[in-house]
Design brief:
Strand content: 35-45%
CATH architecture: Beta Barrel
Strand order of the largest sheet: 1-7-6-5-4-8-9-10
Number of helices: 6
Distance between the termini: 38 Å
Length: about 230
């Protein structure tokens, strides 16, 4: 599946930003319950594919936008991710999913100060984000806490082509909270989309897995808007 976002590329071109500096994230998303997740954590294979050893890590994502939702109106979501000792801003296109198949354009800005634009690094991605927000301050929307269990997925005759992630997810929006489990399989930079399609079929055949078309950002917005 082509992961481009024509609308986003058009906006970037108009503003003088080179679209080639954006990367495309391609991943599968499924929802599942805890018992199914715990069973999958014991798997060493999925159909013709091998699963490496799982490692676990805490991941925190804080989502931001301006008071007039300039980023959402431009077709983007912005999060500040903390994973281990690594922190960065990640700007992702709000490209509609096709069932469990998600393809989004993204920019990354390494920083530990998500709301202080003056301290962001002087790189093209920063310049583009500043133009999008028009020097307005960023305001927090909601936070997602995850315990992420990750393992490489390998072809039987080759190396890893995807990263499998089983996520214990907790959304926090003010006083509201929600919890869920989610499975993701992200295509690695050198991975083949056709092989990921084959993995999609293997996952879809497992009991207890259901295609997830909504992103975690979209579900966070729903929680934020609840009365």
């Amino acid at each position: 599946m082509e992961g481009s976002c024509p609308t986003c590329i058009g906006k970037i071109a108009v503003m003088g930003y080179n679209p080639s500096t954006m990367t495309t994230e391609i991943e599968l998303k499924f929802r599942l319950d805890e018992s199914t997740a715990q069973e999958l954590l014991r798997h060493t294979a999925l159909g013709e594919f091998l699963i490496g050893a799982f490692t676990s890590q805490d991941v925190t994502d804080r989502y931001f936008d301006t008071s007039d939702r300039a980023l959402a109106r431009a077709g983007y979501a912005l999060r500040f991710r903390r994973k281990g000792d690594k922190t960065e801003l990640q700007l992702k296109s709000l490209t509609p999913a096709s069932g469990p198949w998600h393809a989004r354009r993204e920019l990354r800005i390494p920083t530990d100060t998500p709301t202080d634009a003056e301290r962001w690094p002087d790189i093209p991605a920063t310049a583009y984000l500043r133009k999008l927000i028009k020097n307005q301050p960023l305001q927090p929307l909601f936070t997602i806490h995850q315990i992420r269990h990750e393992a490489p997925v390998l072809e039987a005759s080759g190396g890893p082509f995807a990263l499998l992630s089983l996520d214990e997810v907790r959304w926090v929006a003010g006083e509201r909270e929600a919890r869920a489990w989610e499975l993701e399989a992200e295509l690695l930079p050198d991975g083949d989309e056709a092989v990921l399609r084959a993995l999609q079929q293997a996952l879809a055949a497992l009991p207890g897995l259901h295609p997830q078309a909504e992103s975690k950002y979209e579900r966070g917005l729903k929680l934020l808007s609840e009365e």
